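fyi for ur records
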Amino acid sequence: MNETNTLSNNEYDYIIVGQGLCGTWLSYYFLQAGRKVLVIDQPQKHTATRVASGIINPVTGRRIVRTWRIEELLPFALDAYTSLSNAISRALIQTTSVLDFHPTLQMQESFDTRVVEESEYLHTIDNTSHWKPYFNFHYSVGKVSPCLLIDLHAMQDGWRNKLVEQHALLQADFIPEDCIVQDDHVIYQNIRARKIFFCDGVAGFNNPYFFQLPYAHMKGEALIVSIPDLQTSHIYKHGLSIVPWKEGLFWIGSSYEWKYENLDPTEAFRQRATAFLQQFIKLPFTIVDHFAADRPANMERRPFVGLHPQHAAVGILNGMGTKGCSLAPFFAKQLVDHVLEGNPIYADADVKRHERILKRTFTKPV
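which gave:
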C-alpha cells in the first residue's frame, strides 16, 4: 500500500519550503513517485529564478572548460524539461547555441586552441560576414553548441498552477519558529509531515538548520531590451550576453557583484549595459526593464543536497549558483532517489560533506 493512502488532510509525506528551481523540481519528482507534498511559498517579483536568463551552457569561464558533470547534466536536463513541458502543457525548452564574438585577439586564440581539444561543444564559424549588418566586431566568432535555453517564468508559473490543482501549495511566508522537528517527523503549525526540505534560496543564509554552510551572497543585474530586428535563434556573447527572453525581448547581462549595499538596480550597471549595446549592436533597441536579485551561491560552487546529519527529518536542496538550470533537476532526482530508495548522492554535492560544522551546537541567527 502506498504510504500516502494513510495520510489525513493535514498530513503530508514532505513539506518543501520554496518554489524556485529547486522547489519546483523536488516537488515534481516526489509527486511523480506518488508522494503527498505541500510546497510553502510566497511569490516574489525579483527572486533568482525569476530574473535568471535560463541558459544551460556546457562550457564555462575564461578558460572555456567543460562545466562540472555536464556530460550527465545536459542530457538529463533535456529529458527533464521536456517531461515537465508535457506535464504542464507549456513549451519550456529550446535547443540553441552561443555565438561568442571574441573581444580580443587573445580570447580568439584561446578559443581556437580549445576547439581542437573540445570539439564536442566548441565550433568555429567560417562565414562571419552574415553577422556584419547586426554587430560591430573585429575578431572571429566561435560557437558553443548544443546549449539549452529554459523559459523559467513559464516553468515556475505552470508548475505552480499544477500544485494549486493538486492542493499541494500553501501560499504564505514560512515561519521558522512555527516548525517543530522530531526524529521521525516535523510539525509546522497544524501540519504534520515525515520530512521538511528547504529549497529556500537566499533565505537559506539564515536558515536555523543550515546557516553554517558556506553560502555566498552574489548580486546580479540584467536589462530587458526590445531589439525587433535581431534573430532569436542564438545567444550572443561579447563580454555581456544577449539572450532571447520572451515576447520578442532580450535579456542583457549579467553582473556578478560580491560586495554591494542593497539589491536595488544600479545606474552604473544600466549605463555600462547601455554602452555595451550601443557599441556592439547596429540595430535600434529600447530598454524595457532593469532588475537585480540576490543569488544563492556558495563558496565551493557545488550544491547542497541531502539530509541534515543530526536531524533526519530535515533536508536541503539549495546553493545552485549560476548553474541552477542544469543542477536543480539532476540533484532533485538524486535527493528523491536517496530518500525513497537509499541511493547515494554524489559525495561532492552531498551536504554531509559539511557534517562537522552542521553537528555543532547552533543558535538561530538574529
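The first helix runs from residue 21 to 32. thats all i got for now
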